[in-house]
From TrEMBL:
This is Nitrogenase/oxidoreductase component 1 domain-containing protein. It holds the Pfam family Oxidored_nitro. Residues 37-420 form the Nitrogenase/oxidoreductase component domain. GO terms for molecular function: oxidoreductase activity. Gene3D superfamilies: Nitrogenase molybdenum iron protein domain (3.40.50.1980). The lineage of its organism: Bacteria, Bacillati, Bacillota, Negativicutes, Acidaminococcales. Coiled coil: none annotated.
Length: 433
């Protein structure tokens, strides 16, 4: 059954009306293609930690879901790999799961002999109220290895990211004090190879050693020795709680170096990083900054006045839309599942240019009826390209940017935007728009 595009647009909020995430509506009650559970996020994080084991405690549906996801991952080792489960029945739900978990744990330790176990609870555990923090502490003392509780109830959150955040945050519990090695830890990178990034190249040229890389690839020993770093580099919000814990526990400062696209933000992050490292700022960074500014000026004219709907990209939502608005582009709808204090300055700057609609992501099914009402040139994120083309809209592919850090992000995004604008104009010409 077709929806009324105008009615859907009327359901949206304006950015100027938003004070918190509660003020951001969703287009329909059901989200398409649906959200991922935090259990998935926990599994993704443990996948990057060698010598560790994930033990999922919950119903057969939850445990099957996790095993079926990890069974195809080389990181986990297939069917007999690093993902096991404790399946609860009606008796466990009624009388508590502690006894079954303790019995299962003895078998798990004997068979797998892990260096660390992430004991992951699911919704049913959180509902019945079993104390898995205490259970984990008891198992850790009994077997002499870190047993770390990770809570992944889905009814309290929107997506899988809290599972990632909680898994890497609890890693602080097994870190120990170490002598400083003047190295840096990379916290929060989920995709891509850090060794291919501009940031990595700058650190290598300065002779800086890379320590822990969590959750994109490390060992349990790497985590235990993470306090040897002089600085933590946070490249995603999921790692902020861990960096803050390490600063409080070990006095290690952190630099927020997200996938910024605004050149000034990137330059500021570089300056903060090399300042903490007590190293001279690499001279070529000034050239990279100026090159990014030149690319902006070169492409600004072609982007000015271009309307778009923002869906989902590897970049920080409001920082990116602030940048695009400064180029003269016009966001019509911004989709997001988060709105924090850190987003407010960017939102205020966007409002100096325009006041876009906002709604929760991802909901591309009802959005197809909004396209006829708003008629944007571009869609940034994941959508069906052929469906967009029939509406005179080009999709901006930006996933390759998920493996970038530094001024390279700005250049890549501008390239993709210009390419898509030209495609959109061709589509609109074909359609007589």
């Amino acid at each position: 059954m077709a929806m009324d595009g105008k009615e859907l647009v009327e359901k949206l909020a304006k950015l100027s009306q938003v004070q918190s995430i509660k003020d951001i509506p969703q287009l329909t009650h059901a989200l398409f293609p649906g959200t991922h559970c935090p259990l998935m996020g926990a599994a993704m994080a443990v996948g990057g930690i060698k010598d560790s084991l994930i033990v999922v405690v919950g119903t057969d549906e939850c445990t099957y879901y996790t095993k079926s996801m990890t069974i195809h991952s080389e990181k986990f080792g297939g069917i007999g790999g690093r993902c096991v489960s404790v399946v609860l029945d009606d008796h466990d739900v009624t009388f508590g799961s502690a006894e079954k978990v303790q019995e299962a744990f003895k078998e798990i330790i004997e068979e797998y002999r892990p260096q660390c176990v992430f004991l992951v609870t699911t919704c049913v555990i959180e509902i019945i109220g079993d104390d898995f923090d205490a259970i984990s502490e008891g198992l850790s003392k009994l077997y002499g290895i870190p047993v770390l509780p990770v809570h992944t109830e889905h009814f309290k959150c929107e997506d899988h990211l809290p599972g990632l955040e909680r898994t890497i945050t609890v890693c602080a519990e097994m870190m120990k004090s170490c002598d400083c090695e003047n190295s840096v830890n990379l916290l929060g990178q989920r995709m891509g190879d850090f060794a291919t990034t501009e940031l990595y190249a700058m650190l290598q040229k300065a002779g800086v050693k890379i320590g822990l890389q969590l959750p994109c690839g490390c060992s349990v020993d790497d985590i235990k020795n993470a306090a040897a770093a002089k600085v933590n580099i946070v490249v995603n919000d999921i790692a902020l709680p861990l960096a803050q814990k390490m600063q409080e526990k070990f006095g290690i400062p952190y630099v927020y170096f997200n996938k910024f696209v605004i050149p000034e933000k990137i330059y500021e992050a570089y300056k903060n990083l090399f300042g903490y490292l007590e190293l001279e700022l690499p001279g070529e960074l000034e050239g990279l900054y100026q090159n990014a500014r030149e690319k902006i000026e070169k492409n600004k004219g072609e982007l000015e006045g271009i309307t778009y709907i923002y869906g989902n990209t590897p970049y920080a939502v409001f920082e990116m839309n602030c940048f695009l608005s400064s180029l003269g582009m016009v966001p019509q709808v911004i989709q997001t599942n988060r709105y924090t204090e850190a987003d407010e300055p960017y939102a205020k700057e966007i409002l100096q240019y325009t006041d876009p609609y906002v709604c929760k992501a991802a909901n591309i099914a009802p959005l197809q009826y909004v396209y006829d009402v708003l008629s944007p040139y571009l869609y940034l994120g994941h959508e069906f390209g052929n469906r967009l083309r029939q509406k005179g809209i080009a999709i901006v592919h930006s996933d390759r940017g998920s493996g970038m850090l530094g001024f390279e992000v700005t250049g890549y995004l501008l390239q993709q935007l210009v390419k898509s604008v030209r495609e959109a104009k061709e589509y609109r010409k074909e359609l007589g728009l």
